[in-house]
Design a protein that fits this description.
The structure is a homodimer.
Chain A: H1 5-18, H2 20-31, H3 43-60, E1 64-68, E2 75-80, E3 89-95, E4 115-117, E5 120-122, H4 130-147, E6 155-161, H5 171-177, H6 179-182, E7 186-189, E8 208-217, E9 223-224, H7 225-228, H8 235-245, H9 267-275, H10 280-286, H11 300-306, E10 309-318, E11 327-328, E12 331-340, H12 346-358, E13 366-371
Helix pairs in contact in A: 1-4, 2-4, 3-4
């Protein structure tokens, strides 16, 4: 290509602008299909949505378009190889099913009759996720037109599932069964948020989660704190000490090995995040919170987007009723969760937490720890 | 007196042995009165018990014997001044009411028909507290007989209430109203435990209690820990940190000023405690516990008898159901209690706890602390 990136962007935008009306007409047609995956009576509409999308992808020029059956709603797969065999393979993920919607839910217009108000199209799925998915049909055509190519610069694959709004119950099975067809160098999730109307957003990573429940057992039953307190270990006290040991004075997670492998933000990424017009007071309102507190050396956005964390989701033990009751409780429990970033391995985090915990529980307190199924960061 | 203490003790014991049978007959008569303060239908029996005791104290030689009315069951007051005007005044406390009892509760004999089995008298109240109270009638007579006195060596007062087993609901009022009559240099509580059958016991102090409830408020509602965790303060985390800050690495209470004024054990007291045939394994079984842990430098008995403590009686916050829930909880609470020893002032402890707490709660967390009515140590 002889064009500079700027002129290429300009050409793409010009193409999109010229084809805007036809694109919106097509999208509106798709949005009229109430592909509500959670409602069994809409199963036919979900299938109709998959077929509609498959036809449009074929029409766009994708070499391969298939409707993939699952035990639930069908997914759509499409593939358009680059003419450069060395080009990377990019897999775009999206979904064609939508949440239930009715006028009674507070919609000002029919949720399945796309309506333009003040230059914006309103319909169930317009922004989650049919709008984003369908834009790839226009985007790839713009890319070809702007570059003069007849095939994309990358090997392009689309996987558009039909059960995302129902918890993707068959997605893992589908992906595992079709792993060969889905092989890719990069995956783009075309179903995330946007910072604001005027700030296009690229989400470059998703945090994972590991979580655990810890049970601490002290006396075989609650015993009188006047008779035994101060002389036997108290599981509620131990629970508190475990919580206090989660972080150091800089609010960094203090579990040895916790940060091993963490992919750090680059200076460029930090600069980009810092450039965002972030209104912390407005953010605090969405957090329903009355102050910020977190890992020293990082901004609030860096803390919630790109840093691993440890959080107490629940703690309990001993007397919970009104007033006081002077006991050493028989047991206490903790529910902890850890947000993980790229480079962290949930299996290693689990081992690190287990080792750390074993070093914190004193003789005389028995305990158990159970981890839930983790979500890997990416 | 020309007698040595040992010979005086011998004379007292000899007197008691000689009058043992008559004493036990009299005690049995009192034990037959079912003075159950918790049962309204026994109110007449409780009054009969008071009258019976008053008559016996008069017969013993007390110069003044009065039945003191309360809004509930009557108490008995008796006074026997020393003939030495400079002698100290000793007030003995006890109670003449008893707990309910019935054969169905597991009694092998009628609880209100004193029965001697293997040289021990079994009846409700025999050891709590009629036996102890009534022994003062024999004890003072033995003292006089053994010393040749006609009045006790100290100004002796008895206060025997009738509502101890019902929580002493009118006792404070009674004591405050009669404070002048009850003035004393020393108070002996004749209603405590005995180490073992073969080890007579003197309890020289009673620990007091201060307790508080702490509420910690974070976000106005539970918020998602994936969106906000690690960036806003978590009240459950703060609760844990407060708990962890209660003690130092030596398990000493780490609240500044907490030990101010504490009456330390003397070397003699420590030696006496250490001489007791203490079976820690057996004690752990009564504690239902699986290990000991407490203030460094003190034995288990010293810890539970003579040292102040801080204990977590209850802790709670966040998600309590099965499995995990990734939230930053809106609130958390703590129930703490402090055992206090002689020299500690509950009002000062409350101020110390309040100051300490204020220094632990970070910006963004609001809190409240409420103290219950304290019990002063003595």
């Amino acid at each position: 290509m002889s064009e500079t990136p700027d002129s290429a962007v300009h050409a793409v935008r010009a193409y999109i602008e010229r084809h805007r009306a036809a694109f919106l007409d097509d999208l509106a047609e798709w949005l009229r299909i109430p592909s509500v995956s959670a409602q069994p009576e809409r199963a036919g509409d979900v299938r109709r949505s998959a077929d509609w999308l498959a036809a449009k992808l074929t029409g766009t020029g994708f070499a391969t378009v298939e409707v993939w059956e699952t035990a639930g709603a069908p997914a759509v797969f499409a593939e358009w190889p680059s003419d450069d065999p060395d080009a990377p393979t990019v897999l775009v993920y999206g979904h064609h099913d939508v949440q239930p919607a009715a006028r009674e839910d507070g919609w000002h217009t029919d949720p399945f009759e796309p309506t333009v108000v003040d230059g914006r199209m309103y319909a169930r799925g317009a922004a989650d996720d049919k709008g984003q998915v369908f834009f790839h049909t226009l985007g790839v055509r713009a890319h070809l037109a702007a570059t003069g190519r007849t095939a994309p610069a990358v090997h392009l694959k689309l996987l558009v599932e039909g059960e995302e709004e129902s918890g993707s119950p068959h997605f893992r099975e589908l992906v595992e069964a079709r792993a060969g067809r889905l092989a890719a160098d990069a995956v783009i999730v075309s179903d995330t948020g946007m910072w604001s109307e005027t700030t296009p957003t690229v989400c470059t990573g998703m945090r994972g989660v590991a979580d655990c429940e810890i049970e601490l057992y002290g006396p075989d039953q609650d015993v009188h704190s006047g008779s035994f307190g101060g002389a036997v270990p108290n599981p509620a006290t131990v629970a508190g000490r475990i919580v206090a040991a989660l972080h150091d004075a800089d609010e960094r997670v203090a579990i040895p090995g916790f940060y091993d492998g963490v992919t750090e933000l680059t200076d460029t990424e930090r600069a980009l995040v810092a450039e965002l017009p972030f209104d912390e007071a407005a953010w605090l309102r969405t957090a329903k919170s009355h102050g910020t507190l977190g890992e020293a050396g990082f901004s609030t956005l860096e803390r919630v987007w790109a840093r691993p964390t440890a959080e107490v989701n629940g703690i309990g033990g001993g007397y919970q009723g009104p007033g006081g009751k002077t006991i050493v409780p028989a047991s206490a429990h903790l529910k902890l969760s850890f947000r993980l970033v790229a480079g962290q391995d949930p299996a290693k985090i689990e081992l690190a937490v287990r080792d750390w915990l074993a070093g914190l529980v004193p003789a005389g307190i028995r305990y158990g720890i159970v981890f839930g199924a983790p979500t890997r960061p990416c």
